[in-house]
Structures are given as C-alpha cells and as structure tokens.
Amino acid sequence: MSFTLRKATLDDRPAIEQLIKLSARGLSRGEYSDEQIEGAIRTVFGVDTDLIEDGTYFVAEDHGELIGCGGWSKRRTLFGGDQYAARDAGKLDPTSEPAKIRAFFVHPGHARQGVARAILAACESEATAAGFQALELMATLPGIKFYEASGYQGKEPVALSVGEGIAIGLLPMRKQLS
Predict the structure, then answer these.
(1) Quick one: which of 14, 68, 103, 171 has the fewest CB in 10 Å?
(2) Which residues contact 21 (CB under 8 A, 6 or more apart)?
(3) Distance between CA atoms of 67 and 22, rounded to whole angstroms?
(4) E strand segments, 74-110
C-alpha cells in the first residue's frame, strides 16, 4: 500500500470530520454499540483545531483520498475534539510532563495496513525532537492492541459519559521515550 503523510491544514477539516465518523462507525462496532459510537461522535470524537494550528496533526492520503489522521500535542488536553467541553489548551513542560498522542482515526478500508503506525512514528519522532521524555494517550477499546504493540502500557480503564446513561470504555496509556 502506498500513501503519503503530511501535516494537516485547516482546509482538511471537513474531510477529517468525515474520516472520523467513517472510522468510528466502521472500526468500533466490535467494542461499542451503535448508541455509544453515535454518542462519542456527538460529544468527543472530532477535529481538534489546536492540533492543526500547532502543526502537530498529520493526515495520510492515498491518491488524494484522506485515509488516516492523528497527531501529538504539547498541550494539556488528553483527548476530545473542539466540541468536547473538558479541554485545557495550556502548554506542557517537556522536561517533566508527557506529550499527548491524539485523535487517531483510520478509514476502515485502509485499516491494519501501516497507516496509523506511520503517523504514530512521525508523532513520536517530533515529540522526541521537542524534548519530551514520555507520551500518554487515551485509547479507545479498538485501539488498545495497536498501542500495546507500539510499546504503550495501560493503566486503569475508565468510563467516559457520551450521553445520558451512555458511556464508553477507554484506557489511559503511557510510553517512555529513549
């Protein structure tokens, strides 16, 4: 499979929004119910404009089609798109705080073909170059195996409310950088 990786721009925002919905609906069904997926799309899964503006968000393209996205952040927000209320855009101290791995989504037709791995490698490289010693993320249940295979270790699972009486399971994970 051939694809190109580049930094996302604000012009990519509509295509990223569509990719997030496709990915969540196509790759989360084994772990979450339709109600949980739709609740997550409404409340937390979405574009984080700060990542694009900071130049830390990547998109993967195959012949002009967006097939993957993901990034890293030097801000405190651990997860959630612009619509997620619990956000903290404050900057992290790379000498004492971990960078955040954020908002990874892959088109279902391109899953398990190295797209997310290429984006993650670019994120880890940039975070290391920025002086960060560790990375942390909040994994969705479908993403746990991918992150474990990439050297991340899970903590205690958490439940996140995505609507009245609806919650999704997530796993905080961390990786030390060399």
Answers:
(1) 14
(2) 41, 45
(3) 10
(4) 99-106
Burial of 94 (0-12, 13-18, 19+ CB in 10 A): middle
Please name the residue that has the structure tokens 């996140």: 160
Specify whether the CB–CB gap between 170 and 139 falls below 8 A: yes
- pLDDT tens over the chain, length 178 residues: 589 999 999 999 999 999 999 999 999 999 999 999 999 999 999 999 999 999 999 999 999 999 999 999 999 988 877 777 667 778 999 999 999 999 999 999 999 999 999 999 999 999 999 999 999 999 999 999 999 999 999 989 999 999 999 999 999 999 999 7
Q: How many CB atoms lie within 10 A of CB 173?
A: 21
Nearest alpha-carbon partner for 23 in 35, 8, 40? 40
**Under 8 Å between Cβ of 109 and 3:** no
63 Rama class: left (phi>0) / alpha (psi -120 to 50) / beta: left
Tokens of 43: 């409340």
pTM: 0.94
Domains and CATH numbers, the chain: 4-133 (3.40.630.30)
SS3 57: strand
